[in-house]
Structure formats: C-alpha cells, structure tokens
Structures
1.
Amino acid sequence: MTTHLGIPGSPAAEPVPPAGFPTTARLIDGGDMDCGSGLLLLITRAMRRLEDGDLLAIRSAEPSVQVDLPAWAEMVGNDIAGVGSETDQGPWWFAVRKGSASTTVFSTGERIPVGHRIWVYTNFDCNLACLYCCAESSPKAAARRVDIPTARKVFAEFGELGGREVILTGGEPFMHPDLGELVDAAAGFERTLLTNAMIFGRGNRRKMLEDMDRSVKLQVSLDSAGPELHDSQRGAGSWARALDGIGLAKSLGFQVRVAATMLDEDPEGVTALHARLDEIGIAQDDRVIRPVAAEGYAETGIHVSLDDLEPEPTLTADGAWWHPVAVTNPNMRIADSPLPLSEVFGVVNDILDVQGVAAASGREVFRCA
Ligand code: SF4
C-alpha cells in the first residue's frame, strides 16, 4: 500500500508515480528539499518504520537529489530499486529498498585504553611464509629477536605505568631460543602467546612448552574448518599440524584461543569453522575472525592508517609501532626503540589528541546552525 507521509506545504493530493515505477510501501514527497536540508531526516524516519526489503518511494523537485540520493543509499546499505521522473525537469522519483543492517563475520572489539596492553614481536623469523603475512616473516627473514634484558626493562616499566596485558607474537615465537625466559619476564601480566602451533611438538621447544606457566593463553592460527583454505594461505600440511598442536596444547592444560584470518567475508566458511572449533573444544570467547590487512606480504586487504586504526602499541627489537598489523609500514612507526615505554605511549596519546582536535574542528566546519 502506498502511504503519503507528506510535509507541511506539500500538495494535499497524492502525486502519481511515473509509468513503470515500482509499487512501494510508503511515499515521501520532499517538495523542493535537498538531501542537506531535511530530506534525509524525513527519509530516515520513514525507513525506521519499514521492514528490511520494503520499498520507500521518494519524490523530489530538487535536481541535486539525482546525485545525492543514490550516493546516500549506497553509503547506508540501501538499494535504489527504481527511478523515474514526471517530466525532463522533474520532479524525480526514487524507489529505495531498505537494506538489512550490515553484518560482518569479522570479530569486533572495544578500544583498549593506551597503556593497558602492549604487543611484543619476540622475533620475525618463522617456519612458514604465509601469503598475507603482515610482518613479512618467513624462514629467511632476519630474526630481529628481542633480548631478555630489554624485555625485562620493558615489562618493568610497563608495570610502573599500570600496564595489564602483554601479547607476544612474531614471526613464530617458538623460534626464539629464549622464549621461555621472555614469557617468564612478563609474569604478573595477563599473557597471550601467538603461535602457529606447528613446531613445539618435539625436542627443546616441547620442553619449553611443557615448562610454561599454564596461565599463559596460546592463540593459534587456524583459518578454516578443513585444510583447503588454510593450506592454500599458509602452506601444504600446515592445517593438520596446527590441529595437532592445538590438541597437544590442550592436553597439557593450556587455554587455547583460535584466530582465523580471511580475505573475504565468508559466512559459510565461518559457520563451518565454528562447528569445527565446537568439536575440538575451543570456547566461543576464544575465537577471533579477522580480515587480512593490506600490509607486509598481503597484496589486498583492509587498508590501515593512523586515522582509521585504534592504537595498540607494539614493540619490536628495534622500534615501536602503532599496531601489530603495521610493523612493516614506515608510516606507522612511532619510535626507533621499544624504550622508554613512556615515550611510546606519549607519542600515541599525542597523536590521539591531534586526531581529536582535527575531528572536532571538522565538525565545526560543517555546522548548519
Ligand atoms: S602469518 Fe604468522 S605463521 Fe604466517 S608467516 Fe607470518 S608470522 Fe609466520
């Protein structure tokens, strides 16, 4: 049924849509309003009363809507299902289909206050060379290992500054010969160790794992429910070995988290992965689905910059960075040394302040009243 919501001053008689215009649930007659002068408010209010998939007719005599309305519809996830005009000079008609609220398979989270969490790249060499590795790690990568005295100083200062959580990553941390000591040096903080779980099954690394405090959480990369996608991204046989590693870590009493990295939104793949994780006993809260960042070896993926990425200060043997996915990006480097940590946090906070001022001044530029 077509309903005329109307606005003050609009014609009392209901306008007739152009020939061939789709049947719609409601009509907004915007008169000569443009998108910047109230039309969008009327449309937004009307859209709230519609179900997903319903059509809203919008009529406007303002020429600028021919450009602005489709741009708005695309931005908010609605489709333009039909257009028409009463004459060559307008008024113009648009049928807008209400889109469903945007959903994503990727995990989201809250901003971590600066100073609560640090990431530490223990080393950059890795037994794998994944297609999308943001750290450009591989068996041939320079190790760039964090040494134990530096780590102790970092964690001591982090404690003084009120830090709570340390996440150790790489490269593959189990390629660091002193990983056990590094992990011990971070005792007292909530500790998570990221690993591909492939090389700690035997020898010294097995002993390192067995000796590790069970309060350390292990976060293992597993990209898919079966080997196909995971192996294509990470190397033949890596899925089965990761699964073995998860089993070993769980049998030794570790809390295991799983992180999947995906290039595309893949709801079916994610559903299958969750079913697999149910089978192997990974808790719901211990699952992370993350997109590929267009960093390091990744040729496609999410673009990241200081402006669109929440900071998660990240330390390497030779510097400090805005975020762990950006340690190969010179534009995201915030210090040339991991110490002093107060300076690293200070730079991050200064940048956030500048961004806050810029955002506020941007709002003023567009103030309408
Ligand atoms: S993504 Fe992880 S496992 Fe793969 S090469 Fe990089 S550091 Fe190694």
2.
Amino acid sequence: MGESIYEVKTMLLILVLFLAHFESIRGAAAPTAFVGQIRRTSLSSSNYVTTIQLGTPPQLVTFALDTDAEISTATFNPSRSSTFHLLRGNMSSDTATLNSTDGFVPTAPVKLNGIKFKLVNGKKDVLALGAGALAFPTQVSAAARVAKKFAYCLGGSANPAPIFFGNISYYFDSGLPQQGDRYPELDITPYLKYTPLKTPAHGKRGYALEITSVTLNAGSAVTVKVSDDAAIGTGALYTRIVEPAYTHIRQAFLSVLAVTGFQRVSSHHGPLDLCFNITVGQYRSAPLITFTFGRNSSLGVTADNYLVNVDNSNIYCFGIISAGAKKGSSVIGTFQQQDNLVEFDLEKKRVGMTGSLIALRSNCANFNFTRA
Ligand SMILES: *[C@@H]1O[C@H](CO)[C@@H](O)[C@H](O)[C@H]1NC(C)=O
Ligand SMILES: *[C@@H]1O[C@H](CO)[C@@H](O)[C@H](O)[C@H]1NC(C)=O
Ligand SMILES: *[C@@H]1O[C@H](CO)[C@@H](O)[C@H](O)[C@H]1NC(C)=O
Ligand SMILES: *[C@@H]1O[C@H](CO)[C@@H](O)[C@H](O)[C@H]1NC(C)=O
Ligand SMILES: *[C@@H]1O[C@H](CO)[C@@H](O)[C@H](O)[C@H]1NC(C)=O
Ligand SMILES: *[C@@H]1O[C@H](CO)[C@@H](O)[C@H](O)[C@H]1NC(C)=O
C-alpha cells in the first residue's frame, strides 16, 4: 500500500517534470522575427533612427537607418562590455538584445551573440541595412537563424513605428471597434505586392527596382512610360524621376489640376518648385498616382504621399522632382514610402510594398509596442 502511493507520487512527479520541460521548450520556442522602434528625426530629412541595446550589460546606441550601408558603425564603450570582441582594425562583435515578436507585439528580449559592427568615436552611428554579409539583416539572420529579410514602416508622424527582421505576418491596429479589451489587428501581409530587386547600377549601393511607368488616375488616366532602374531605400526624401519622363508627368499633373482648380503659387520649398494654395476639399480631390514596377507590381499613392505641406499653411508642393537633365537616375523617396510597409526579402531577392496603410484605416504608428 505505502509502496504503491510512493509509485503514484513518483509517476506524478515525472509527469509534472515532463510537462514543465515541455512548457519551457514551448515558452522558449525559437523566434522567427524581431521588432524594433524607428522614429523620424525631422520633417525635412529622410533620416529615421532606431535604438538598439549593444553589449553586456546593454548600452543603448541610437543608429540612423541606412539601406546603402554595408557595415554598421557604433559609438560604444568596449571596456564596459564583458561580451565585446575586437576583430580586426576597429571591426568588432558583441551581443545585441532585440525584442522577438509574434507579429502583433514585442514578445521577449533575446540576446543575439556575435553581431558585427565598426567602432567609431562620436561619428553618426549607422545601422547598415544593405544585403551584404556584414550588414545587420544578415548578421541577425545568422545569429538567430531567422529569414534574411527585413521590413520597415516609415511613420509620417513623430510616433514610433516598427522595423522587423526575419519572417512573420505583420499585424497593425486598424479603425475597427474595440472587442473586449483588445482592438482587432489587421494582417497587412496579404497586401504586399512584390517586384524583383535589381542589382544597383555599377558603383551604386543599396537596392533598386525597375520603374516601368507612372499613371495619373483622374477621370481618364494618363500613363507616362519611364523604364529606369530606381533606387529604393532610406537615401532620399523625395522621389526623383529621370527626364524626359518627369517633364511629361509634371505636364499631366498640371493639366489634371487645372480642371480641379488648384491655385498655383510662386513659393518654393527646398527642391520643390511646383506649389499650390489649396483647400481641404481640393486636397482630397488630388489624383491617385500609380507607379508600375517591373511587370506585375504597382503602388498607388494618394496626396498623403506626394503633396508636401509647407509651414502648416494651405500651401502644398508636388513632392516628386526631376532627377536632372543628365545622368540623373530615378529614386523612390522616403516621403512616398511613408505609411506603407516596405519589405526587403534578401533570400527571394524581391521588394514588397503594401500600399497606403491610411487607405486601410491604419498607419505606421499603429503597431502595438506594448510587450505581451
Ligand atoms: C522591448 O519592448 C519593450 C516594450 O515596447 C521596450 O520597453 C524595450 O525597450 C524593448 N527592448 C529592446 C531590447 O528593444
Ligand atoms: C576606433 O575605436 C576607438 C575606441 O572607440 C576610437 O577611439 C577610434 O576613434 C576608432 N577609430 C576610428 C577610425 O573610428
Ligand atoms: C513566414 O511566416 C508566415 C507567417 O507566419 C508563414 O506562414 C510562412 O510559412 C513563413 N515562411 C517561411 C519560409 O518560414
Ligand atoms: C491661400 O488662399 C486663401 C483663400 O483664398 C487666402 O486667404 C490666402 O491668403 C492664400 N495664401 C497664400 C499664401 O496665397
Ligand atoms: C508576374 O506574376 C506571375 C504570376 O503571379 C509570375 O509567374 C511572374 O514571375 C511575375 N513576373 C514578374 C516579372 O515578377
Ligand atoms: C496591445 O497589446 C497588449 C498586450 O501586449 C494588450 O494588452 C493591449 O490591449 C493592446 N492594445 C491595443 C490597443 O490593442
């Protein structure tokens, strides 16, 4: 009798230990993706920054995002980190702590060992988002065994927006009513439309895609053929289009606006020289501009992504400019990417864009950063 109770207790103990073990495996399931917060530093630049914890104990380093950079640079105190390794020159490696994510919220801080960067002193720290082996997406992919892929959502406001590394479905709060204690999140992944990544022109860094044409959709659509490889990334604020296509787009834009009664004004705003004094109603009637990339993919942008407000007045300038008369090349600027999720899939060599999240009653600031 006493012995059988002992046996039952032992079996229960084994069962409890087994379940606890199973739970710890499940709890520690390897993450498939990570999320960080990005912020826009000023309204008049293409600069976005993110803060990452480097070293043990962690030091906070604020990096500018740079899709044209292949080596991250950090101002960092190596003597205060027990996990720091000096490699060659000022190339170094250390532990970076990132939040894993389930696509809805950050889930847990995870230490990634051996992340490589270059030590600098007081220079601007840069998070290299290039496709090479030393750039951050490849470093994260190797350290955490996640997909070699990243996606950013560039916010149009000062609020934090997400940057993802790895493979996950992306969920954002949309304008749906609260259910219980949560707002239902919208899976924006199915809205991604992909186009192949092109190797940038000789001597250029970063990412490029083929821009086939630009269409102004107002009443009857006007399509201007472009046929150029356009850089896409964090390098420029405003979209630039090669000549003579740009001049045709500008003419088409002006003839559409003549109908809607936009009042042209002589103001200039930095490189923007096509400015209007318009009412809210006219802003809403501004045409949809559709960029066609490669053969299959298109991105429709509304006034939010091409009319630039000047000094909080009712003056707006056309945020698409000429790449210049000679040897200029096309660029998709950060202003046109704002409030879109842009995914760079370095394994499948393609770039995906959701189109305006505002049209889905969301925006880049609608990712829930409250840790589960
Ligand atoms: C993880 O997310 C939480 C909540 O947003 C934040 O407070 C924390 O700083 C993040 N940690 C890292 C390592 O990014
Ligand atoms: C190399 O790192 C040291 C220590 O942070 C720093 O003082 C020095 O300026 C760095 N050298 C270069 C070329 O950035
Ligand atoms: C990427 O993530 C999605 C959603 O979580 C999943 O359905 C898909 O199988 C993943 N793909 C790979 C290659 O892991
Ligand atoms: C813009 O138009 C409004 C209404 O017509 C006018 O009051 C305002 O002075 C104009 N602003 C400029 C800078 O032209
Ligand atoms: C266009 O889409 C079709 C069908 O989805 C696909 O087979 C083809 O590879 C795509 N072409 C390009 C250039 O992306
Ligand atoms: C954000 O996520 C937290 C859990 O991490 C949840 O409690 C909260 O309700 C969410 N907020 C919204 C607005 O959905």
